[in-house]
Amino acid sequence: MKERAIDPSYALIIDHESCWGCKACEVACKQENRSPDGIKLIHVTEDGPRMVGDKPEFVYRVNTCRHCDEPECVEACPEEAIVKREDGIVILDEKACVGCGLCVDECPYDAISFDSERGMAQKCNLCYERVDNGLLPACADNVCLAHCIYFGSPDEIERVMKEKKVSRCA
Amino acid sequence: MSKFEYANIEREMEVYGYDSVVKSHCRMCHGGCGVLVYTKNGKAEKIAGDPDCPINHGTLCSKGLASAQLAYHPDRLTHPVKRSGSRGCGRWKRISWDEALDTIAERLLHYKDAFGAESVVFGYGTGRENEAVIYRFANLFGTPNVLTAGHFCYGPRIATSILTCGTNPIADYENHPRCIMVWGNNVVISNPDCYKGEPFSTALDGGAKLIAIDPRLTRIAARADVWLPLRPGTDAALALGMLHVIIEEGLYDKDFVENHVHGWEPFVRRVEEYPLDKVEEITWVPAQKIRDAARLFATTKPAVIQWGVAIEQQVNCADNDRLLMFLMGITGNIDVPGGQVLFKPPGIRNVGHFGAHRMLPDTQREKRLGGDRFRLAGQFAIINPKCVWDAILEEKPYPVKTLFFISSNPLITRGNAAEVYRALEKVEFMVVSDFFMTPTAEMADIVLPAATWLEMDYIGDFWKRHGYILPRRKVIQVGECRSDHEMLNELGHRVGQGEHWWDNFEQALDWILEPMGITWQDFKKMDYIRGDLLYQKYETRGFSTPTRKFEIYSTVLESMGYDPLPQYREPPESPYSMPELYRKFPYILITGRRLPGFFHTENRQVPWLRELHRDPVVEIHPDTAMKEGIQEGDWVTIESPRGRVRQRAKFFAGMDPRIVSAEHGWWFPEKEDLGHGWDESNINMLTDNAYKACDPAMGATHVRTLLCRIYPEDRS
Q: What is the ipTM of this complex?
């Protein structure tokens, strides 16, 4: 197994099985980050409906920065405006961004937006200032009525999600 | 139960340097959630859910989170205005509150004197918890006419539940229902009435079985163990079919039926008229699926039905509500933990008492508009909107001269919008109290600036049936905005009702709370009060109905001259009731699916909420779209026998291709013209409000299903 360059202390994990598409996370993010109209740092989209065999399928997908282990956006940025911290959070420094848009093209998850008015890239910085002050990111701070957005240690989240899955199917 | 990660309030205060945090109670919708309002320099800076609140456990929806953006919106009305020029000319003059209230008082008294108090009609929409105070004012003034959404929203549940079992049975999510049947409801988007998406969601994560009754594949339907995609408007037939299975297979609670039900024998005979093959033909749902759902619901205990407004905006309104209650009742799920509980409210002066219904003289009550036609509605002080428009336009049975709308936008929300427009154009005097200059407010003579929930003290959920009351604490003041309660208290003094009102509205709150031996100041220090929690109260006291039984055969409806047993009526405009029309209008249009961020006509000017959903969207099956030459994202024309509107097409494969699903509540605050595009995408340009298309008992307008055609906008 490949050794991780950085051992992430944090992860933001979304349990898509539970998500209802209510978009409270989108507005909680707006309230905290005041991103401009049209720029969504977290974005809920529909997947389906479609028939899978004889079972109809329809889920919501919540898209936001994955804070990748080896972020392609960091590699792509000529200005070193995007950095991955020791704790795993990938931060885009708006002040250092020159608006070349290369990170937007490189992101495999389509999780970086371009603010054409201000000429800069925008993405979820995982509310790092809140995290550094012992607070949860806005979207994960118990807004979600489905309790489907988790923030914390990846192993712990895995465990909670597994428990939830078992109890859901009990 | 899930473990909740609670908000760290102290840390939040420190880090952001907030001055204070106020616990309050949101009112961005018909529900109400506990909230925390963080303030800085006297301004509301951040809104969060209150983790200690038993209603929402700290979670909060998009609307609640955006409350401050609404409160501080630059377009907010912040002082009273009067029209200077002809009706709807869009020119307004700022006036003082004194001038506004004096003028209104003088006009109200003038019309009362000249045409009788009944010529003055008050109205509210889904309400800012102003229901009780508006009824109080109207009853004391002597008018029996308060036009609300009550004919087709929540009012029917209250009326029919009082008839059946004494009060509205509420899903007891706290005690782990093992089966949830969601019937025409998207609780996770709308958070309606006494229910919130959060406890529902938590119950599902706890392993509850799920049955979904919905023509559309919502996410709830996609997660369901059984999904019944019924033909729109056939809910009553489907419920009768399920009851048929439960009775035929002996899956009902025999003890409950034997000891606590009135009218079992005739009811069984009625249900026998709905065998499954017939129900399948009516509902388009395969008989086996109906059987599966009925068995699952009847044999999994405790079970609840998550119901709501969709089944009420139909010609079968009252019977739909009753049938779902019968499903709850005969399966033994009424008033048991984890079932459907008849919660007791705290011992305060209740909404009916505060509403002063007994102060309305009988001679005036008899004049209630539509009271002889829609007799169940009349009994509950509810009127059908068309009765008001007719009284304005045709002066029958008497002229209505004044409309006073408080948080209501009937031009968008009521059936047959073109007729509503004509009535608003003609009425002699109209007052509107609201947050913004809505298309309805643009037609008024005087517009008053109403306070949001952030700007008032009140007893939250005063009117609800879940057994809680929660303090709504004033956090901010915006301009000269006043709560509807304060406004009507002031106006009460000016129309000679002074003895029945108070020096200030805080004294009214004291009066409401008095039987509990507390004042508003005491209550303000509490998180909430819950009524006594007792189950199966009927074992000792019976039900609060004329027979003391669970009335499946309604003695009250019988005495009013209605069928005491439930029945299915074919929707007034359907492929079967109007086959000729169906050839020209070959799709079933359903209206009003719920969207995050909006509350009926509200919030389209709030940036964070409009960003969630920019345009009115009509869902159309991809096969249908191909047939009609419609591309995804096209603006299309939806046409009914009554008119045309435009919405944007979105492909949606999760419904029968014969169904088209349009949104309701649309107007465009950003449009400069005076109507703000009220008739462009407003689905009520298409709906019918004819009396014969309304529920015969409740007067519910059948706005949810009709026939339409749909085509690209450039092809007329």
A: 0.96
